[in-house]
Design a protein that fits this description.
Elements (H helix, E strand, L loop, with lengths): L5 E5 L9 H11 L1 E6 L6 H12 L7 E4 L8 E4 L12 E6 L10 E4 L17 H8 L4 E4 L5 H10 L3 E4 L1 H4 L4 H22 L1
Parallel strand pairs: 1-2, 1-8, 2-3, 3-4, 4-5, 5-6, 6-7, 7-8
Helix pairs in contact: 1-6, 3-4, 4-6
């Protein structure tokens, strides 16, 4: 099972500095390895069409849909309260803010790792090391406030499989450059950590 790693982009069309498709395309050019389609408030047909368009920007299997309906594909990311999806989904993630209580999920996002301007007052911030302790052996993505190379590197050094980024890329005037900076810092720190083990 391939689980998300590297820089995982979460969409938010309301924060996007341009059209959502353009911002995502630029982030993918900058090194976003996976995309989680949020936009849960869109009507079903519109959201499904958006999923189809986003899949065209990514390697096969790299679009994950937030919620239990994979919108015609086979990867979902669930909120803490979402039910498990019906059969036929091969990759399942779940958002967690504490010790993951999982059944068949393949990975989790833990948040907030750092204080975040996207959700001010949301927290308290876990910090990378405490998030790693909460995750235990579960593959995890660091979410929340990962908006600098230093923070990306700290997450890698703590053992995160990847960083889940929304606001820093969605709001950026240069989504490609911001993505490349964060993805490069994370990758270098992860490689360095692996070399020390």
């Amino acid at each position: 099972m391939v689980t998300p790693s590297g820089l995982v982009l979460l969409t938010d069309r309301r924060l996007a500095s341009g059209s959502l498709l353009d911002v995502v395309a630029r982030a993918v050019r900058g090194g976003a390895a996976w995309v989680i389609l949020r936009e849960r408030d869109l009507p079903y047909a519109e959201r499904r069409a958006l999923a189809v368009s986003l899949r065209e920007l990514l390697p096969p299997g790299r679009l994950i849909v937030a919620g239990p309906d994979p919108l015609g594909a086979d990867a979902v990311h669930l909120a803490e309260a979402d039910p498990l999806p019906v059969a036929g989904v091969s990759l399942i993630g779940r958002s967690c803010h504490d010790v993951p209580g999982l059944s068949i999920e393949d990975y989790v996002t833990l948040s907030p790792i750092f204080a975040t301007s996207t959700k001010p007052g949301y927290g308290p911030a876990l910090g990378p090391d405490d998030a790693a302790l909460l995750a235990g052996e579960v593959p995890w993505l660091a979410l929340g406030g990962v908006d600098s190379p230093e923070r990306a590197a700290a997450c890698a050094e703590a053992g995160a499989r990847g960083i889940a980024v929304m606001g820093a890329v969605m709001r950026a005037a240069d989504p490609e450059g911001v993505t490349r900076t964060l993805a490069t810092a994370f990758g270098a720190a992860r490689a360095g950590s692996a070399g020390r083990r």
